[in-house]
């Protein structure tokens, strides 16, 4: 979350002089994350140090130890025992969670350490769970529609002034319970605090605005204690500390002030940076327009690349070391989220914005006990703003000459002005874009499983309730959550007109990380599966004719597309290749639909297709669709480039997902009991159920996010029992200690587990 207080002063430019690894220790570097060099190109600046001196010491801003690698940032951020967030540990005046320190009131819980911070996290967490935020979706959409309506007829806009600042402010303040008269008056000063240089007139206005915010929070808490309403401040004002006393007004001022800061300018920054990027990269903007479902995945990539909070800081409690660099008690340590998010050890080609990347490991929401509690709300606001912009003013163009960025990007980054022009459009007149919340989650059962080819099964699914399933279109896929916690995506290959069932084809990947093998093992008639979707990143666009190219299991989305083209009586041709005839799933079904428009090419009999001939023989308006192994898609892309058809190509790659995923055998799952120490409830966890699925049905306000064991949001203290760790976050030492676990993927190797819940 963001902080209330001044951004750091911008020092005079310094020469970038990376050190060698041998210079760790007491030697100092000229590292300065507020320098002109870093402001101009932050990722390149951090990369230079990561490659030469990834952890070192600098004497700028009073001296501190800097880090640049993902692993070191995670280690420091998660180790509250060694690295403190509290002002008291750092000593002196001002907030200690940024470098250099800034003025401002102490903010709970971000400037406290556990266990003191825990009571305030427990206070706010129930307001910001996935379920609680999902209920806010209509309100977010309503405000977004209202804000866009105010400028859509003009044909021009300053996205910061007119959208990305007022919208998050309105949503956050409305949710909390502030009257509409306060929204504009509070939004401006919060943005001023982040965007102004210290000592400037604008910074003074921001400070005055914070004084007014303090006053209004106190007044609103008093009003809600006297007459509660259906808002978040009423909820907070009624809560009690563990000793039974109401939280004091001073405590609530700190907590509510942090919620406002975290909800307003951080989302402003992310949305603005994304809008600028999409203006500069119209091909990615068009992909999001053509495939709206892609935004769910792309949001994490935008968060990774455009992290609003660039860095934070901790203070060492004791003498220690980080990445080979000694750190003395009392020294401050910089943990730059932006550097971690661009570490090639975790994210391949980190400076490339890849809308298909699984970027769930990004640290833009932090990690550990201070991970941003408002992550779900931030995503919801961001997606709704981007959706309405792409839907209602899709041809917007940012006026580059008018862009104004923050004066320093060392702690917070963002834009102060983003002027843009677009074709004027109509006001919504009572309609609105549907808000994007969580993906639809469905409980399905396996209806039938049959062999489709060598190593491929044809799985048909229906709703556990027997109800009709959500509609879908060719190119859509399901995200299947396996009993082990693994997540895999499979294209729907059935008929969209069959509303009572879904159909997927699953190839058993012998060299994979176990997901396909697990699905082959558990897919039996009557087996239960939880899925999300359908989502469509590969839609079938309108075109006068089509060329479909399928390779191996890539035939699954192509089969649905061919069926749709045939039904519409559109011209098309389909070419399907595979290693051998026995490995080619759905070949006869494809032939039955397409007849002589289908060409089947088993490689061991027919060799490789003549791609230049196939693609070069298409018309200038032919839509070319390709799905299959990466090597095949690469070859098709090269052929399209050679034949002048690159703009007509649509592809979907089947990727294995996250290369850092922990491998394990789900066959070892055993049943166990979990006892919740705070409530005294004991629950049974069967082998086919995930621990978190059992817990979230019984624990209101349960905190979790990625459900992959990456983010640390669900880390829970273990009081007894032997946890089985299946996350990729805990260190080996932490695993051996068994004092905490990630309940989204972890299990238990003993008969009973006792958790601090």
From TrEMBL:
<dbReference type="GO" id="GO:0051537">
    <property type="term" value="F:2 iron, 2 sulfur cluster binding"/>
</dbReference>
<dbReference type="InterPro" id="IPR036396">
    <property type="entry name" value="Cyt_P450_sf"/>
</dbReference>
<dbReference type="InterPro" id="IPR017927">
    <property type="entry name" value="FAD-bd_FR_type"/>
</dbReference>
<dbReference type="InterPro" id="IPR006058">
    <property type="entry name" value="2Fe2S_fd_BS"/>
</dbReference>
<dbReference type="Pfam" id="PF00111">
    <property type="entry name" value="Fer2"/>
</dbReference>
<dbReference type="InterPro" id="IPR017972">
    <property type="entry name" value="Cyt_P450_CS"/>
</dbReference>
<comment type="similarity">
    <text>Belongs to the cytochrome P450 family.</text>
</comment>
<dbReference type="InterPro" id="IPR001433">
    <property type="entry name" value="OxRdtase_FAD/NAD-bd"/>
</dbReference>
<feature type="domain" description="FAD-binding FR-type">
    <location>
        <begin position="429"/>
        <end position="541"/>
    </location>
</feature>
<dbReference type="GO" id="GO:0005506">
    <property type="term" value="F:iron ion binding"/>
</dbReference>
<dbReference type="GO" id="GO:0020037">
    <property type="term" value="F:heme binding"/>
</dbReference>
<dbReference type="InterPro" id="IPR036010">
    <property type="entry name" value="2Fe-2S_ferredoxin-like_sf"/>
</dbReference>
<dbReference type="InterPro" id="IPR001128">
    <property type="entry name" value="Cyt_P450"/>
</dbReference>
<dbReference type="Pfam" id="PF00175">
    <property type="entry name" value="NAD_binding_1"/>
</dbReference>
<dbReference type="InterPro" id="IPR017938">
    <property type="entry name" value="Riboflavin_synthase-like_b-brl"/>
</dbReference>
<dbReference type="InterPro" id="IPR039261">
    <property type="entry name" value="FNR_nucleotide-bd"/>
</dbReference>
<dbReference type="GO" id="GO:0016705">
    <property type="term" value="F:oxidoreductase activity, acting on paired donors, with incorporation or reduction of molecular oxygen"/>
</dbReference>
<dbReference type="Pfam" id="PF00067">
    <property type="entry name" value="p450"/>
</dbReference>
<dbReference type="InterPro" id="IPR002397">
    <property type="entry name" value="Cyt_P450_B"/>
</dbReference>
<feature type="domain" description="2Fe-2S ferredoxin-type">
    <location>
        <begin position="672"/>
        <end position="757"/>
    </location>
</feature>
<dbReference type="InterPro" id="IPR012675">
    <property type="entry name" value="Beta-grasp_dom_sf"/>
</dbReference>
<dbReference type="GO" id="GO:0004497">
    <property type="term" value="F:monooxygenase activity"/>
</dbReference>
<dbReference type="InterPro" id="IPR001041">
    <property type="entry name" value="2Fe-2S_ferredoxin-type"/>
</dbReference>
<protein>
    <recommendedName>
        <fullName>Cytochrome P450</fullName>
    </recommendedName>
</protein>
């Amino acid at each position: 979350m963001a902080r209330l207080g001044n951004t750091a002063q911008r020092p005079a430019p310094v020469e970038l002089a990376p050190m060698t690894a041998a210079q760790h220790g007491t030697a100092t570097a000229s590292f300065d994350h507020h320098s002109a060099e870093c402001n101009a190109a932050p990722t390149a600046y951090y990369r230079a140090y990561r490659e030469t001196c990834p952890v070192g010491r600098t004497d700028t801003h009073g001296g501190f130890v800097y880090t640049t690698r993902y692993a070191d940032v995670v280690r420091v951020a998660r180790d509250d025992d060694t690295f403190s967030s509290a002002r008291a540990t750092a000593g002196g005046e001002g907030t200690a969670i940024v470098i250099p320190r800034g003025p401002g009131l102490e903010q709970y819980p971000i400037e406290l350490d556990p266990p003191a911070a825990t009571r305030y996290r427990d206070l706010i967490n129930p307001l910001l769970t996935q379920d609680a935020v999902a209920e806010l979706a209509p309100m977010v959409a309503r405000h977004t529609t209202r804000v866009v309506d105010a400028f859509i007829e003009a044909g021009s806009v300053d996205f910061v002034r007119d959208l990305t600042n007022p919208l998050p402010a309105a949503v956050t303040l409305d949710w909390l319970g502030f009257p509409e008269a306060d929204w504009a008056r509070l939004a401006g000063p919060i943005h001023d605090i982040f965007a102004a240089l210290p000592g400037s007139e604008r910074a003074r206005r921001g400070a005055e605005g914070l004084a007014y915010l303090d006053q209004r929070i106190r007044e609103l808490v008093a009003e809600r204690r006297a007459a509660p309403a259906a808002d978040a401040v009423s909820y907070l004002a009624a809560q009690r500390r563990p000793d039974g006393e109401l939280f004091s007004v001073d405590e609530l001022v700190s907590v509510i002030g942090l919620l406002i800061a975290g909800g307003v300018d951080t989302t402003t920054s992310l949305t603005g940076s994304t809008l600028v990027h999409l203006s500069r990269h119209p091909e990615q903007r068009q992909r999001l327009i053509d495939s709206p479902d892609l935004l769910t995945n792309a949001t994490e990539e935008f968060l990774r690349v455009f992290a609003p909070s660039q860095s934070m800081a901790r203070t060492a409690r004791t003498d220690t070391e980080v990445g080979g660099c000694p750190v003395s008690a009392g020294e401050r340590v910089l943990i730059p989220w932006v550097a971690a998010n661009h570490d090639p050890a975790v994210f391949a080609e980190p400076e490339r914005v890849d809308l298909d990347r699984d970027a769930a490991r990004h640290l833009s929401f932090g990690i550990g006990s201070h991970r941003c509690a408002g992550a779900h709300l931030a995503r919801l606001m961001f997606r709704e703003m981007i959706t309405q912009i792409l839907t209602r003013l899709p041809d917007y163009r940012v006026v580059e000459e008018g862009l104004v960025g923050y004066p320093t990007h060392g702690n917070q980054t963002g834009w102060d002005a983003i002027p843009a022009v677009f074709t004027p459009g109509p006001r919504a007149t009572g309609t609105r874009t549907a808000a994007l919340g969580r993906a639809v989650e469905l409980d399905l059962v396996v209806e039938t499983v049959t062999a489709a080819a060598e190593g491929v099964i044809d799985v048909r699914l229906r709703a556990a309730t027997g109800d009709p399933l959500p509609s879908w279109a060719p190119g859509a896929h399901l995200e299947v959550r396996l009993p082990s916690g693994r997540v895999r995506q499979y294209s729907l290959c059935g008929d969209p007109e069959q509303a009572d069932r879904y159909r997927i084809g699953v190839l058993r990947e012998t060299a994979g990380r176990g997901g396909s093998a697990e699905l082959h093992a558990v897919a039996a008639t009557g087996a239960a599966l939880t899925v999300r979707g359908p989502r469509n990143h590969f839609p079938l666009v309108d075109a006068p004719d089509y060329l479909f190219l399928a390779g191996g299991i890539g035939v699954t989305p192509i089969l649905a597309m061919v069926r749709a083209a045939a039904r519409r009586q559109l011209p098309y041709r389909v070419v399907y290749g595979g290693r051998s005839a026995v490995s080619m799933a759905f070949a006869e079904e494809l032939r039955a639909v397409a007849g002589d428009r289908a060409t089947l090419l088993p490689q061991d009999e027919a060799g490789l297709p003549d791609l230049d001939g196939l693609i070069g023989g298409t018309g200038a308006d032919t839509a070319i669709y390709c799905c299959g192994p990466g090597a095949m898609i690469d070859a098709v892309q090269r052929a399209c480039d050679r034949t002048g058809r690159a703009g007509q190509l649509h592809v979907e790659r089947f990727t294995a997902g996250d290369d850092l995923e922990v491998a394990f055998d789900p066959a070892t799952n055993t049943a166990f009991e979990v006892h919740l120490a705070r409530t005294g409830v004991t629950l049974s966890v069967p082998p086919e159920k995930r621990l978190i699925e059992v817990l979230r049905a019984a624990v209101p306000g349960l905190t979790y996010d990625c459900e992959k064991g990456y983010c640390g949001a669900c880390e829970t203290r273990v009081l007894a029992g032997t946890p089985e760790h299946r996350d990729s976050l805990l260190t080996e030492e932490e695993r051996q200690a068994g004092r905490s676990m990630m309940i989204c993927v972890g299990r238990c190797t003993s008969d009973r587990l006792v958790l601090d819940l």
